[in-house]
Structures are given as C-alpha cells and as structure tokens.
Amino acid sequence: MYCYKCGVKLKDNLKRCPLCKTYLKYAKNTSELSAYSNIIDDVGGHINFKYISKILLLILVLSALITVICNYFISGKITWSIYVIASITYLSFQLSFLYFKKKLFPAILSMIGLEYLLFTIAYLNNGMHWYLYLVMPNIFAVWLIIVLSVYIFKRKKRNLMRNIPIIFFIISSILIVTEILIDLYLRNIIKLTWSLYASIPILVISLIFFIASFNKHIVEELKKRVFI
Q1: In a domain? residue 167
Q2: Which of 14, 62, 187, 216 yields a CA-CA distance of 20 to 30 A from 101?
C-alpha cells in the first residue's frame, strides 16, 4: 500500500507514514489506494501543449526576424545573425516534442536541427572537414543508439534493476563509438583505449544489476529504500 499524502510505499498495518508522519486510514481493499492523486493527471490533461508550442514558435520566428533586421541595419549585410537563425531553428525543432504525441518524429527533427546548427558553424568557419568526418557521424551514431534504447525501454515491462544495465550499456556504446570516430578522423586506424577502460567497469556494474534484478527480495528492498 501507499501513503495517500506523500505516495511512499509502505508495509502493511502501519499506523503512521515513516516519511511524512501522517496517520493512515485503511480502506477495505488496500490495492485501491493510489500512490498519488488523480488530480495531477487531470490538470496535466487540460494543458494544451500544441497551442503552447505554436506561441513559442511564433516568438522564436519574430526573434529571428528582428535579429536579421538589426544585423542588416547595423552592418549593411547579414553576417552574425546567421548564427542566431541557426540556433533559433534548432530550438524550433525542439518544440516538436510538445506538438507530437509520438516522440520518434520529434527525435528525428531534433537530430536534424542539431546537425544544421553545427553545419552552419562549420561552414561559416571553414570547418567542413571536421564536421563531415567527425561531428556529423558522431551525432547520428549517438542519436541512433538513444532511439533504439528508448524503443527497447517501451517494449519491456518497467523494471528498475533491469533498466539500469540498459542505461549503462548506452553510456558504454556512446563512449566506444566516439573513440572510433575520433580515431578514424585523426589516424584512419581504430585503436580503442580510453573508451574500453571506461566501459569495462560500467559493464561489470551493469551485469551485477542485471543478475540482481532476478532476486525479488532485493528489488523490493531497493524500492523501499529509495522511496523511504
């Protein structure tokens, strides 16, 4: 059962919550007690995120226009405002997370926006070589790993102890992919060193959590300790 005030998971037959010290009134069926109030869900359901995203997008567009106009009147041509436009474009793509319920399409837009922002910086500063051979593939690889990991999370039942190894695996994969891309960019030879040194302990810890996830007593005890 749960405390109806703070939502902490409790042992049966407790007269007072150990966290908020609230006296508990038991229902006949304790499984009906919720860990939080349904009012929160009702309030969140009435927020029109699409309308908010449209307002924010309009503000960003107006900011971009004002920046371009100021740049033109000050310098007689469009120069530094290009950086601002690229940054605002990236922020505009982030608003898609508020507009679309399914997060895959906003995630794609987010990656495109980041790629465009860094492309603009590289192009204006004669840095296309490092962008094409290092930055662009690295961003895509990290994005792909994260999207696949989120997809795995959604397909599996929520289990804290088994989700932790997945998070550690994501971190290790990002480190290894980053070093591979850096090696190819600098030496055209893959020679993994620091990413392995960092990944091995992370993978060992994730293996420990994964094995412990099959012990129900450990999982329940961890949940109680985390909440209380």
Answers
A1: yes
A2: 62
